[in-house]
What we know:
This protein is mainly α.
Amino acid sequence: FIGLMPMLTIFSDLDHKLDDNSSLVLEIGSIINDTRSVEIAVKVASRTMALLRDMMHDSANVRPRSSAGEDLLHQCDFCAGVSRAVAPAIATLDNSVAAALAETRAEVDRQLSPENRRALQRSLREATEPLVQVKDTLRGTFGKFTDTSNSKKLRNYIDGDY
Length: 162
């Protein structure tokens, strides 16, 4: 019984921490919002580099032609070099810590959505319901023994002083 109350208190505290305006939910929301700029910056850099790669790889830039379609007898070696050099940088950005952070942010957002938090709270309450019933039964059964106002009466009864 002694360990039951602290455990129920922990479950109750956890339940309250999942409330909409709890300090935990507000702090996590703040962290999610504060890291959004990192995700945006990585996306912009990666997409910009992809545009550069695609532009440099475009045949109109590698082997330009006149408006009449005639070969201008020019091959852009710079274009081919840049296109090849930018590809690993794009892959690095797309697989970077910042990209992992963006995925983590999205997952935390999903897991701690209001619907998921409500479901977690329901699960906590359902899981603790049998423990609350045990607590109530024990309190009802032994409450008279632990009630200080009844202790003198109980002692007198046990001693035979009615």
